[in-house]
Amino acid sequence: MKNWILPVALIVMAFPSTGMAQSKPLVLASQGSFFVGGESKTSKELTSSTSGPGAGETGDVTINQMYVQYQTPVNGSQHTPVVMVHGCCLSSKTWETTPDGRMGWNEYFVRKGHSVYLADQSSRARSGFDATKINAVKLGHVPPSELPNIFMASHQTSWVLFRFGPTFNVAFPDEQFPVQAADELYKQMIPDLNAFLPMPNPTWTNLAALASQLKGVVLMGHSESGFFPEQAALIDPAGVKGIVTIETGCTALKPEELSKLAKIPILIMFGDHLGDLPGPFGSFWTTGFDACNKFVQQVNDAGGDAQMMYLPKMGIKGNSHMLMQDKNNLQLADLILRWIDDHVEAKEHHK
Amino acid sequence: MKNWILPVALIVMAFPSTGMAQSKPLVLASQGSFFVGGESKTSKELTSSTSGPGAGETGDVTINQMYVQYQTPVNGSQHTPVVMVHGCCLSSKTWETTPDGRMGWNEYFVRKGHSVYLADQSSRARSGFDATKINAVKLGHVPPSELPNIFMASHQTSWVLFRFGPTFNVAFPDEQFPVQAADELYKQMIPDLNAFLPMPNPTWTNLAALASQLKGVVLMGHSESGFFPEQAALIDPAGVKGIVTIETGCTALKPEELSKLAKIPILIMFGDHLGDLPGPFGSFWTTGFDACNKFVQQVNDAGGDAQMMYLPKMGIKGNSHMLMQDKNNLQLADLILRWIDDHVEAKEHHK
Questions:
Q1: How confident is the model at residue B56 (pLDDT cuts 50, 70, 90)?
Q2: Do A156 and B59 touch (CB under 8 A)?
Q3: pLDDT tens-digit readout, B126-155
Q4: Which of B5, B31, B46 to mutate to test the interface with A (most CBs of A within 10 A)?
């Protein structure tokens, strides 16, 4: 149990003397947290224990809700709020302090005048999940085969799939992810229970509801959730003023769906080294990239405003899958902020 | 799937026109998040899927880490930082915006000049957990009997055990919990995986490490975690300048342990209606209260500074188990802040 003797390097990372500490004070008009969605479910397996609270009880629990944490800057009403939702095996921590202790996009966007809403996906982190099935297996009520899959991303898979380098612990020469702090990223990882969820994924429905409730937002998704903004807009586009899709595989849509999305400005962003991965990962990112390029073309053919920002093509090299944590993360944030200015807010002003 | 059509009441709760909105801007010197602790574990059951990423792979994951989110006010160096850790089936949401949309203790303590650190217990919420055993059962590698228990608190159990009233959906006449918003509390509830953890509980070790790292804090626990500050101080008292234990069952300690804790100011707080619950819950709180009174006496007999704040005895009536969410939550926070002034900081000044 010596894990509490932290190396000095980690302490420095958690409390950096550069970056945040040198920033001006952050002035918030308000902050807080709340839930969107959620429904009651009667469970007969609240516990697998045969004694103590809940044993043998049939009772109600709330499932499929989505936890949202927000901050509004003092000048926040001038800009469109941004809702950020994280990817597989992660939580809203994705958008906060980077693994090497720099400012995350959550605070940076607030400092640039946008209210920011961080959403933990339904069934992940502070949104909770439904453990009924797991207890039911322990109690012998259902067979183990009924357990949905839980996915954990290993350090080895993450390093290569997130494109830190071609082989575990070997970095690309121009790598932008702060690889010396990779262990801090691994601590962010949370087993993914999305296979426990019904369809449509409640996170999509909850994002659509949040957008409506806030009367207009930019929805931003990443990786597993990269296309969630589009899915939310297909359920209810009312509050979706703009979409930012970061590094995902875009889903093939029907013409009527494309027409719906053609009414919303869409930005898609991809980093570097998409085709530089070995073996089984070889075509993972190029397939997603190709699908998203096709999606952009289709939305624009339907009269929409979709744009692919492929960073290497813009001269920005070495970015990993974790764009919001890369060493140039604030440069990339500026690209998104500029895009919101030009495509979402300029459009609003012309109405 | 109509759960996204939120009643107006909930929208008002999430964005109250009173309370936070009327407050002065919140001025932060810094904010961020990081992890404490965590260790690598090799897992052969990263997924129970037989295809796709992780299938058949043996790889490493990080477990037992503790996620911490912090805010430092501009005048924060004048006061002792406070670390808040939540109870069973909950997350750090406990300390944030109340179920009926009022300011939580996290922001209130910051506004009163204290840096606040919110810790998600190891194996809960943004701290992640180890799903290896669950996948191993699905894959047939181990029998279902090896699954640790997962505990979910039902609405029915929570209402009575948290002392909102004697019977589900019936409130005590003087109830301080905002019972009209009980559904919002139920959304905060997360299955409890603490039975998956080794002993000593990594959260204890991580809290001790955090306290040392910060060079002096007040540790505050609630319910399941109510005695975690004491457990952390027994592992390493170096950084523990004060302890606040809210509504728990105090553990019987040995004389040498009591001597260790006698060097740290300790506040214990209990609300109302401890003995007013029916049937199986009847002696739950009175047993814990009695054990904590005995603990206070023992610490003081060992030369310590321990104090029991039993709210009804002070004329403060009707408080539930969720003191930090009750309608008089800021009044109770003031009692704690005053106690820190008098017992922790005054003591510091005299050194």
A1: confident
A2: yes
A3: 999 999 999 999 999 999 999 999 999 999
A4: B31
| Alpha-carbon span B324 to B188, nearest angstrom | 14
Distance, CA of B84 to CA of B75 (rounded, Å): 20
Chain A residue closest in CA terms to B8: A213
A258 three-state secondary structure: helix
φ and ψ of A346, to 5 deg: -60, -40
pLDDT, tens digit, 9 for 90 and up, residues B253-297: 999 999 999 999 999 999 999 999 988 788 999 999 999 999 999
Check CB contact of A203 with chain B, cutoff 8 Å.
Answer: no
Distance to chain B for A52, nearest Cα, Å:
9
Q: What is the pTM of this model?
A: 0.94
In one letter, which amino acid is A183? D
Interface residue A205 vs chain B (CB under 8 A): yes
Q: How far apart are CA A318 and CA B19, in angstroms?
A: 46
Partner-chain residue, chosen from A21, A62, A152, that has the shortest CB–CB distance to B189 = A62
Shortest CA distance from A147: residue in chain B: B138
- Whole-number percent of chain B with pLDDT over 90: 87
- For chain A, report the end-to-end CA distance as a whole number of angstroms: 62
Nearest to A197 by CA among A224, A236, A223, A220: A224
Nearest CA to A181 among B328, B341, B34? B34
Say how far apart CA A217 and CA A117 lie, in whole Å: 10
What is d(CA B203, CA B197) in angstroms, rounded to the nearest whole number? Answer: 9
Beta-bridge partners for A243: A219, A266
Q: B47 at the A interface (CB within 8 A)?
A: yes
**What is the average pLDDT across B222-246?**
98
Contacts of A157 in chain B (CB under 8 A): 46, 53-54, 57, 59
3-class DSSP state of B220? strand
Yes or no: say if A225 and A207 are a contact pair by the CB < 8 Å rule. Answer: no
The whole-angstrom separation of Cα A214 and Cα A79 is 13
Alpha carbon distance B62, A233 (integer Å): 35
Interatomic CA distance for residues B119 and B206, integer angstroms: 10
Report the SS3 class of residue A221: strand
Contact A47 B150 (CB under 8 A): yes
Phi, psi of B205 (to 5 degrees): -60, -40
Question: How close are the terminal C-alpha atoms of chain B, in Å?
Answer: 61
Nearest by CB to residue A60, choosing from B43, B96, B156, is B156
